[in-house]
Each structure stands twice: as C-alpha cells, then as structure tokens.
Amino acid sequence: MGGGVAGLALGTFLQRSGIRCVILEKHSREYVENRQRAGALDARGVRMLHEWGVGEAVEGAAHDSSDEPMPLIIDGEEREWKMDDHEDAESVFLPQQILVRNLIRVFLRDGGDLRFEADDISLDGLDTEHPRVRYRDVAGSTAVIGCDFVAGSDGHQGVSRAAIPDGFLTCHTHEFGYAWLTVMTEVPAHPLAVMAVHSRGFAAQITRGPNASRVYLQCPVTDTIEDWPDERVWTELGKRFGGPVPRGPIISKQVVPLRGVVFSPMSYGRLHLLGDAAHLISPMSAEGMSLALHDAEKLAQAIIRQVEKDDGSLLESYSDTCLTHTWERQAAAISMTDTMHDAGDITYRGEFLKHVARANLENLLRPRRH
C-alpha cells in the first residue's frame, strides 16, 4: 500500500528474494515521480541499497564537491560543522523524487507489479490468515487481491492505519511549538546545504536537484502562506543568512508545524505499518527516508524468514525492533531540533535555554579560526 520510498524499497527487496508482491499507489506515476519531499539519505541507507543490489537507486545523488564543510551561519558568522566521522562522508543529498523514480525503474524492469491510480482502497480480514485488499483500478473496475501480508506504507494520511480498529494503536505526539515555512524555489543551492541560527529564527536552504532548492524559515504555527509574500521570503532569508541571497521563481509555499509522531504497535494481524504511516520525525533530522528504508528492510527480512523457513519470529518482533530504532532517532531529532531553534529566537523558549543550546551547538562545530 503506497508507492513511496518505503513501499518501493520493500517491494524491491521482496522481489529480489523471489517473493511475489503487488504495490498499489493511488496517484499517477507522473505525480509520484515529481512529488517533492526530503532530500537526504544517511550512510546506513546508502549502504543498505547497495547490499540489496540496488545501488543504482542513488544515481543522481549529490555530494558536496568543495573542500569546505557545509556552513552553519550563527548571527551572520559562518561556522563549520565537525565532519570527521566517516558516516558523514557516505551520506548523500538525494531528493525523494529521484530515489522514487530510480526505485520505480528498477522494480518495473525486474518484472514488478506496480499499479498506479488505484482508488477507493479498502482492507479487510487483517486479523485472519488471508487478508484482502479491494480497490478500483484506472479503468474503473473493482479488483480484489488476496494476500498473505499487507504492508501499510501509504503515508500519514493513508488508509492502512485507518483500517486498524479504534483503540488498538497508541499515538505518541510531541509538538515543538513552532513551524517552518517551506518554500520550493527554482534557485540552486550552493553549497548544497546552508543553515542559519539567528535571533529572528532558524533558516536553511537545501538542494533539491541541480536547478532547485527548498528554503526553510522558522515561523509561528499561526502563520499562513498569505503572511509570506515572495519578497518577504527572500528578505527574511537574507537577514537570517547575514547577507544578500540569490533570488528566483518560487514554486510553492507551505506552513508545516514541527512535531514528532509515533504509532505503537506497528503491526495488527497481517498488517504491518512502515514509514510515515507509522511515524513522523522532525524534518530538522532529515531522516524521513532513512527511517522508511530501515522499516522496509526489517519487514522484508521478516517476510523472507517466514516464507523461506516458516519462521515467524522476525514478524512477531518487527514492531518492537522498528520502534526501538524509531525512538532512538526521535531522541536525536528532538535534541538537534531544540538545539538549532532554541539557540536563536528566544521568544519560544527563553534566554536560559538559548545559552544551553549555544553551548550544545559549540560541541558540534569546529573551533573558530583566528
């Protein structure tokens, strides 16, 4: 259920292990391949794709080719991140639409069954040995798929999690108390990622390909896109970056409240949730795709063990395994998000925590050059 990173990765891993699967995606192929989302993949995710024989999925990834680390601008002063860890060198900037496009190509080339524009999807029999998925195909006909397992990888608003009976899941949520204005632009990012801590709020510009970038500006959760005309976006970015910034066409804007969400457990009967259907993580962490790949690999390994060895132990522990990893990443994401935002605008959390955040931030940066 869902042809995003989680669903496509899972389908690819299963198919390469000789296990038949069907991927249902409610949108068209064109829509999915051009949907703009997060653009980073950690070293573990990169290695995972290579280990499964689909390293070509990261074709089009961008590495910073300069000798200088990607900057953090603090009150107009450019600082350098500590980049000594080999893990940092293996991570890549990879816009989601490029990864999705590559995974679709690989899955279909290898004979995968991927059905776009699947509408009115419903699930039943999830607590039986033979769940069923009903949907209306692109021709308007109703189809029914009988299966052994259902993977709910259809995002936070998808139908998979909604098919679980009320009261079974627990939703854990953390609201940060501020939002990001996210702005898609036709302006290249150079370097590939620049972030700024400023008394006016956090700001960033991250690559989304050779001719595009996304701008992020911290703002109150009550702001609307009407509060942010194009001129204000560029002016505010320049103020927080401490100087003039290249301008260009703005494609879209959205106000996104920052929060973390985790649903527990991640399994109900023969349905297993993964990716955004199971959890949302602060975008400050840039770990959405990496978490999706982690879930996909763990579920693939569990299903393969069940099919090949009639051993359901990994399926039984799938939720606990993924939740342990998810909470570890949520903890890191909250720490980084608080540090980057508390260190700037004191109107959210006060002067005391600003100094605490600045001290924490110094531990992540190289010493100033004299």
Automatic annotation (TrEMBL):
Keyword NAD: yes
Keyword entries, A-Z: Monooxygenase, NAD, Oxidoreductase
Span of domain FAD-binding: 2-328
InterPro entries per the UniProt record, alphabetical: FAD-bd (IPR002938), FAD/NAD-bd_sf (IPR036188), PheA/TfdB_FAD_monoxygenase (IPR050631)
Enzyme Commission number: 1.14.13.2
Record bears the keyword Oxidoreductase: yes
Enzyme class, first EC level, given as a word: oxidoreductase
Family matches, as SUPFAM superfamilies: FAD-linked reductases, C-terminal domain (SSF54373), FAD/NAD(P)-binding domain (SSF51905)
GO molecular function, one term: FAD binding
PANTHER family: 3-(3-HYDROXY-PHENYL)PROPIONATE/3-HYDROXYCINNAMIC ACID HYDROXYLASE, BLR0106 PROTEIN
Protein name: 4-hydroxybenzoate 3-monooxygenase
UniProt organism field: Amycolatopsis vancoresmycina DSM 44592
